[in-house]
Amino acid sequence: MEDEIYEDPPYVFKFPVPPKLNRPILRITDGRIGYTKEDPIITKCNIEIDMETRIAFVGPNGAGKSTLLNTLIGKLDILDGNRIINGKVKVGVFTQHHMDMLDPRLSALEIYHQKWPKERAEQLRRHLGAFGISDELALKPMTLLSGGQKSRVSFSLICFEEPQILLLDEPTNHLDYDAINALIESL
Predict the structure, then answer these.
(1) What's the whole-number mean pLDDT along residues 31-52?
(2) Which of 11, 38, 47, 125 is 20 to 30 A from residue 156's alpha carbon, by CA?
(3) Is it the case that residue 60 has pLDDT exceeding 70?
(4) pLDDT digits (tens, 9 = 90+) for 93-141
């Protein structure tokens, strides 16, 4: 008996339109960023992010990109300077290790039901479908999905609560060419 070949649907990323927030949303002024005051990774950092901002941090591994993102959202303390985080902001974070957070035994739909047990299955499936995870793909255990499919499940989870800010740390690692282009187009 031949294995069934599952063809992915056309790649789409439908990011929700979140409620607007007034400025400032995220801001660092004269920041020193890193893990020790004696040896900061970044000095004199000035950055402001609002809902219209699109920024790409590019640099070699270990340059401080993830450290900057984690400091910006308050996951790491700022060593010196001023940081403002709007109290109403929802931040969706896509990390380099997003797949580690998905239970390999559960399907995408089961993961959603664990996080949001009161949501109707139809709404959850519609949301998953907006990221190309539809039909039987939404019911397969994570362990059977490709890296790109798991990435799309992670994107859908991040976007379910309509964050005003998306921080994407190496989001294309497991995506194929078509999915990368769909992500670029959506952003």
Answers:
(1) 93
(2) 47
(3) yes
(4) 887 677 778 999 999 999 999 999 999 999 999 999 988 898 899 999 9
Q: Would you say 147 and 99 are in contact if contact means Cβ atoms under 8 Å apart?
A: yes
Backbone angles phi, psi at 17, to 5 degrees: -95, 110
Question: Region 22-37: what's the mean pLDDT?
Answer: 94
Structure tokens belonging to residue 32:
């020193």
d(CA 137, CA 149): 9
**Phi, psi for 152 (deg, rounded to 5):** -65, -35
Non-local CB neighbours of 100 within 8 Å, separated by 6+ positions: none
Cis amide leading into 24 (omega within 30):
yes
Q: Record the pTM.
A: 0.78
Q: Tokens 């004696």 sit at which residue?
A: 38
Q: Which two tokens stand for residue 105?
A: 């035994």
